[in-house]
Amino acid sequence: MNDWPQLESKYIMHTVNRVPVTLVRGEGARVWDDNGSKYLDFVGGWAVTSLGHCHPVVTAAIAEQARTLIQVSNQFYTIPQIKLAELLVENSCLDKVFFSNSGAEANEGAVKLARRYGQHYRNGAYEIISTFSSFHGRTLSMVAATGQPKFQQPYIPLPEGFVNVEYSNIEAMKKATTDKTCAVMLEPVQGEGGVNVPDDDYLAAVSEWCKRKGILLILDEIQTGIGRLGTLFAYEQYGIEPDIMTLAKGLGCGVPIGAIMAKDSASVFVPGEHGSTFGGNPLACAAAYATVKFVLDNDICGNVSRVGKYLFHGLEGLRRKYSCITDVRGRGLLLAVEFDRDIAGTLLSGCLDRGLLVNQLKPNTLRLMPPLIVDNADVDEALGILDGVISGIVG
Ligand SMILES: *Cc1c(COP(=O)(O)O)cnc(C)c1O
Question: Are both 334 and 369 inside the same structural domain?
């Protein structure tokens, strides 16, 4: 058999320290490696495989579209793109969509849109306020928006026009707002930066502030959108409406696609101002349409909310049992478990040996983001494995 890790190190740039498993197949919440070992997948492609691996509805939509029309360019009308846009608009507070191929690309477009808005309505204001410990993507501008030094420092000088302030601190945001500000960009719950849930009134206060100042609220729902937190979009839980919202991860159930959504009042692009070769191609849009339609028609959000609570309570139980667990946080099926020491790597390996995939968020923190279709039995299995592994490490 091929030594895949060795071939990988020969041919692929070393941008990630991979978990020593080569995955070859997936079905629902389960994946298999090249030795035939099976794992319960609580990473879900980083909150991407919303309906689980190779969901039959998504697979059928991809196969059908692949036989019909894959790509023609955005000079022409294509039906899957229009149908997906209609579905997203009719089920959100936003009015218009632009499709991209990834999250970072959607956020880039959102910032361009906000800058056009600033040129039209805010005297050329161009600055975006984002937050520390956020994550908005890996392009140069999104690195500037991402308030984490480890992503920024290797690439200075960064594009200008981004200001980072403390998350869940409305006063910091107010202080940073100037005549140059055109928008605020936030995750409703910070994902990569730690699964940080803001204070209950924070998002409402930000929304109110943006309205008062005439600046745009951009919600980055790339990780939280499409049911992850138990509602189709996270903003629904906070009683606010963004002017611009970006989506990606769970939207295509594994097929690369991103989206910028905006209220009519913020949809200021005119022909030629933004574009994409692959964005909104029929293949990706057919996969995303099948995904979102299934989420809506089968009350997947209700499942997330119920199973998410069940998982949260199970993790709380582990916290009471093991004093090394210092925090359990998150919403829906985006949860983190923090420890009083740097054992996340050791725990991850232990879980791997017992057939559970988890994500190491920080040296002392694990993140759980299983497919949205998991049930209580899957959660029991994961909790049992975690329990065994933690007890094996701390006694
Ligand atoms: C993953 C993520 C991104 C970046 O998406 P890519 O598809 O990797 O470019 C941006 N924002 C948030 C909140 C994310 O979780």
Answer: yes
* pTM for the full predicted model: 0.98
DSSP tally for the chain: helices H, then strands E: 13, 15
Say yes or no: 293 and 329 in one domain.
Answer: no
Cα distance between residue 96 and residue 366, in whole Å? 36
Nearest atom in ligand 1 to the alpha carbon of residue 137 is 4
Supply the CATH number for residue 21's domain: 3.90.1150.10
CA–centroid distance, residue 1 to ligand 1 (Å): 35
Q: How remote is the CA of residue 103 from the centroid of ligand 1, in Å?
A: 4
What is the reported pLDDT for 2? 85
291-323 pLDDT, tens digit per residue, is 999 999 999 999 999 999 999 999 999 999 999
Q: Is the CB of 45 under 6 A from ligand 1?
A: no
> Quick one: 286 and 313 in the same domain?
no
pLDDT of 1 strictly over 90: no
Q: Is the CB of 41 under 6 A from ligand 1?
A: no
Rounded to the nearest angstrom, the distance between the alpha carbon of 50 and the centre of ligand 1 is 15
Q: Is 136 near ligand 1, meaning CB less than 6 Å away?
A: yes
Q: Which of 297, 312, 344 is the last residue of a domain?
A: 297
Burial 307-339 (b: 16+ CB within 10 A, else e): bbebbbebbeebbeebebbeebbbbbbbbbbbb
